[in-house]
Specification:
The complex is a heterodimer of chains A (about 220) and B (about 240).
Chain A lengths: L1 H20 L1 H21 L4 H24 L4 H5 L2 H7 L4 H30 L7 H25 L6 H12 L1 H16 L4 H30 L1
Chain B lengths: L3 H7 L1 H33 L13 H28 L2 H33 L7 H22 L3 H33 L14 H33 L4 H8 L1
Helix pairs in contact in B: 2-7, 3-4, 3-6, 3-7, 4-5, 4-7, 5-6
Classes of the chains: A mainly alpha (about 220), B mainly alpha (about 240).
Amino acid sequence: MSGSWQAARWVIERDLRLAFRNRGQLLHPLLFFVIVTTLFPLALTPEPSRLRDVAPAVLWVGALLSSLLAIEFLYREDAQDGTLEQFALSGRSLTWLLFAKTASHWLLAGLPLALMSPVVAYGLAVPPAAMPAIVAAVGLGTIALSLLGAVSAGLTIGVRRGGALLSLLTLPLAVPLLIFGAQATARAIEGGNMAAPMYFLGAFAVLGVTLAPLAAAAAVRISLE
Amino acid sequence: MDWTWLHRFGSPPHLYGLAGTLVPWLAWPAALAIAAGLYGGLVLAPPDYQQGDGFRIIYVHAPSAWLSLMAYTWMAVAAGIGLIWRMKVAHAVAASCAPVGAWFTVAALCTGMLWGKPMWGTYWAWDPRLTAELVLLFLYLGYLGLRSAIEDPQRADRASAVLAVVGVVNVPIVRYSVEWWNSIHQAPSVMKFGKPSISWPMLTPLLIMFVGFTLLFVALVLVRVRGEILRRERQARWVAEVVAV
């Protein structure tokens, strides 16, 4: 058992180290998130009351699109340099190793997105009191999103120009996350009770943790054949 | 337990022959049922007291919508069988279900929109059922896109099978989320169909149409399965013999 934990820690440490040596790749999805959400006030209106109305939608669509960008890089380098094959041949459970990999991906992409969302939300005239709730909602939603992306990215390993296909596969499956995430954010802005949508986001995260690594391992194994 | 019957199904020449025998037995009853259902629905059934003749599109719309979901389920079941038992023929069935199901989804969407224009005053309203149907169409397109993007046919089979199985877990979640989303955001201007206690002269043609469309679906899938098997087995000797006859 301790060997499995050791392996997971090794995977996560390796991913974090690689990411911090190549910070640009880490920043690009975040910058994309900020820029896309900046376009909305420019296209729509700078009027705070209208911005506040569309803030949940803008925030979540932006978060969804920018995590798609990040998901594209989840396996790319590991597939190219043979690390994924080593995972599959290591004798450890591929499911478990990919779960660790997805966890490190969430730390590198989902968590920064959640931490960045108050900045974006503030730009959309969201009252500061709603910020902790928004961070929690985006953080919870990106857990399920990372897991979902781990499956669809696994399916598109080695597909040339897989980026557009990746969005075609992931976005329809992410509809429930978008609905409940935006709703939690809207309730937070109104100062209402956001328990129900947060429970749903939590339920999706749990469902993703239990099932997605299995599907991701099957997908990666197929792609490595 | 004797599993030989399952392995017989798994043999491409056997399934090719079986599908060929079955197709006329399904297609002709389908044609008869659809003709009878259309006559019953368009001529015999009385106009609806509220919707007039507009309701008659239900005779095409409801069976299409039902089949769009059923085709997805069948596709996922066939894909699962193909993944678990590594049955090549099951992948051929899954691959054949997808385009047929996608077209039934398109039919359900288009007829829904045509019905929406006179009833709701607009072609498109974010009605939960229409929205869920649209997402279903995207799922089909994703499946077909993944299948066509991977060049190696066996990898394409298995990768798209994983996607189909993941999707089938997600379809009910999408459906209920969309309904929940809608119950909160939707303006009450939309008139609901309201689960009416539909009368027998209206219901009977509808049931006949359901039977006819289902038979049609199975027949279409079997025709496509025959094509898929021929394409996949084109190197095999039995194909040369079958095609030469």
